[in-house]
Design goal:
The protein is mostly beta strands and 536 residues long. It has 2 helices and 49 strands.
Length: 536
């Protein structure tokens, strides 16, 4: 099995996104169940899968995911009815691959197994061969355990949990586990093998002891309507974690969605390639040890300490909205080697800050951050070449809307970073797209419209604050290097995510700025900076 490199470069990502906007068709012979995130049961209708930003061919090369694994002959299914003290293969038949011991149902061979019914205190165990693909269809299954995990994959090459269309399924584990040894289960849905979740049915997972869903190998979320509540982490894939499609809602006592392999080179990466992910986490919202990539879909972190965290963070498409008590986007941790101390004027925190092997790259999509700590933070370098980045940063001067230890290169896209005036970072010398830095005389309240107008009085940008703000760094293709712009507060604006078009009726002039004239900073990185020679 291959894996993404520990750092997915923009060039590599651009190549992987070659099929953006294309659909993937699944041809389904009669009597065969097919799923491309859309079909279930024994449908004989060909279906078209959801377009993905990173091609499925690329994913098949870099993960265990194979769309063929989601196609099977319905006649080969083994139906198992779950019932307290009476679980059995349905229809009065038997199967050498299914054994029942009390309220423990064990599956020992490759194949497709359809589970329905309930166990009030039981367990489903997959103990198949190391080369076996085991497909479990949950078709109205409700499994609870009072001693451990209700669903455990002990061994297999790959386990597929397929959620039957139109069904509600539930897994709930114990608050404490009898077995707490090495590699013992610690999640309501626990797998020692590669794990895929697919189908369009619903699944509720209550991880009362520790994690909700955990794979000790690779994890691909291909579809599903899944709600997870976990005492610790919500969803964990060790080698990698991929969201392709479906709707996943996570409430976690620690991290929300993560990949955590910190020992194997090239592992510990996470990709959001479609679907909808909503996370409320007591610690990090979405986290990877190596590279975290958002290429498509909708990602919303409603609550977190740090919203997105990884050694390397790539935003290439989709919509990501992050709310955090500390940093919104944080490139740190991981397996970085120590870099050099860098000082500087704009574009870097400098002042002896270490520049490590950490990066944030924004090449597309919409990234909106509401952070009490630093908004977009890289302990190394950062680059913005496309897309839109909107930061509602801190109100205290100990943090900044942008915090980059190395170089912040802005070569395209749109950036609007607002916050306090104590630690402002501006685009660095390698930036080819100009911008302005606004430092207001005093803090303006939430809901204030800040507008930039060119020499003809045309509004080129309108920003509406979501919290108290004294500083705004803005860059877009509409800004011409060396040109003078008048800053206004007030007036009216029509915005999306805080940024849009405005009119100057009722607005008050707050002074002028000159594009590209970033001044030296006064914070730890050399960084507060006024624009065009001072405050307004």
């Amino acid at each position: 099995m291959k894996s993404f490199r520990s750092y997915l470069s923009v060039a590599a990502l651009a190549a992987a996104i070659g099929l953006a906007g294309c659909s993937v068709a699944a041809t389904t012979p009669t009597g065969v169940s097919s799923v491309s995130g859309a079909t279930t049961g024994s449908s004989s209708t060909a279906t078209t899968g959801t377009a993905q930003a990173v091609s499925l061919d690329t994913l098949a090369e870099d993960t265990h995911y194979d769309a063929d694994d989601l196609t099977w002959d319905a006649a080969s299914e083994v139906a198992v009815t779950l019932a307290d003290g009476a679980s059995a293969v349905a229809g009065g038949t038997t199967s050498d691959a299914v054994t029942v011991d009390g309220d423990t149902v064990t599956i020992t061979a490759a194949g497709t197994y359809r589970l329905s019914g309930s166990l009030s205190d039981g367990q489903v165990v997959v103990a198949a061969g190391e080369e076996d693909t085991v497909r479990i269809i949950l078709a109205g299954a409700d499994i609870t355990s009072s001693t451990g995990s209700p669903f455990v994959v002990q061994s297999a090459d790959e386990a597929i949990v397929f959620l039957e269309d139109g069904t509600n399924n539930a897994l709930s584990d114990a608050t404490s586990y009898t077995d707490q040894g090495t590699d013992a289960p610690n999640a309501a849905l626990y797998s020692m093998a590669d794990l895929t979740i697919a189908g369009t049915g619903a699944l509720t997972v209550d991880g009362n002891y520790n994690d909700g869903i955990a794979s000790k190998d690779g994890l691909v979320l291909a579809a599903g309507n899944v709600t997870i509540k976990a005492a610790d982490d919500g969803i964990v894939g060790k080698d990698y974690a991929v969201l392709l499609d479906g709707a996943y809602q996570v409430t976690a006592g620690d991290d929300g969605f993560k990949s955590d392999n910190d020992t194997d080179e090239g592992r510990g990466w996470l990709l959001i390639n479609g679907g909808t992910l909503t996370v409320s986490a007591a610690d990090d919202g979405v986290k990877a040890f190596n590279t975290l990539t958002i290429a498509a879909g909708t990602t919303t972190v409603t609550e977190s300490e740090e919203g997105l965290e990884a050694q390397h963070i790539v935003i290439a498409g989709g919509t990501a909205t992050v709310t955090s008590n500390d940093d919104g986007v944080n490139a740190s941790g991981g397996s970085s080697t120590t870099g050099t101390a860098q000082g500087g004027m704009g574009g870097g925190m400098g002042g002896g800050e270490t520049v490590g092997d950490y990066t944030v790259e924004v090449t597309g999509g919409l990234l909106t951050i509401n952070a009490q700590g630093d908004g977009l933070d890289s302990n190394g370098n950062a680059s913005i070449s496309g897309g839109t980045v909107i930061v509602n940063g801190p109100t205290n001067s100990g943090n900044g809307a942008l915090d980059v230890n190395g170089e912040l290169a802005v070569t395209g896209g749109t950036v609007a970073a607002a916050g306090s005036a104590g630690m402002v970072v501006t685009p660095g010398s390698t930036s080819t797209q100009s911008g302005v830095q606004v430092a207001l005389d005093s803090t303006v309240s939430a809901g204030t419209v800040i507008q930039l107008a060119d020499s003809s009085g045309t509004v080129v940008a309108a920003f509406v604050t979501t919290k108290a703000t004294q500083s705004l760094v803005f860059s877009s293709a509409a800004i011409t290097a060396g040109a003078e712009y008048t800053v206004y507060t007030g007036g009216t604006a029509t915005v999306s995510a805080g940024l849009g078009e405005g009119t100057l009726d009722g607005a008050s002039s707050a002074g002028t700025v000159t594009a590209g004239e970033y001044t030296a900073a006064q914070g730890p990185g050399g960084g507060m900076g006024g624009m065009g020679g001072g405050r307004m």
